[in-house]
Design goal:
- The chain has 122 residues and is an all-beta fold.
- Helix content is 0%, strand content 50%.
- Strands 2, 4, 5, 6, 9, 10 and 11 form a 7-stranded mixed beta sheet that branches.
- Strand 5 and strand 6 form a beta hairpin.
- The model has no long low-confidence stretch (mean pLDDT 95).
Length: 122
């Protein structure tokens, strides 16, 4: 059983920054692709970013490309999402997930965290 715990969310003004963290259990973290998704109130969960096990490949949704950066620290079993130039439309619960490969598809991820709230005020 892989357990993922997100942290780092909070309230920030538009234009500000936040860094989300996702701590993973288990010794197989370094072989697992990771992703970030988000869900706004009344909306479907959407893909944000993904990173390969070795950090050699990343992908982002168009709305966050150039503003968000996904990274990981395998010895610490942690994946990060650095969010800069935040906009009110970034407001959502952010979830990290673990899967076999980098992917924008929710179905490619087998394990999910409980989420952390990000609120961006205008």
């Amino acid at each position: 059983q892989v357990q993922l715990v997100e942290s780092g969310g909070g309230l920030v003004q538009a234009g500000g920054s936040l860094r989300l963290s996702c701590a993973a259990s288990g010794r197989t973290f370094s072989s697992t692709a990771m992703g970030w998704f988000r869900q706004a109130p009344g909306k479907e969960r959407e893909f944000v970013a993904t990173i390969s096990a070795s950090s050699t490949s990343t992908d982002y949704t168009d709305s966050t490309k150039g503003r968000f950066t996904i990274s990981r620290d395998n010895p610490k079993n942690t994946v990060y999402l650095q969010m800069n130039s935040l906009k009110p439309e970034d407001t959502a619960v952010y979830y990290c997930a673990a899967g076999r490969r980098i992917s924008f598809r929710e179905s490619d991820y087998n394990y999910w965290g409980q989420g952390t709230q990000v609120t961006v005020s205008s």
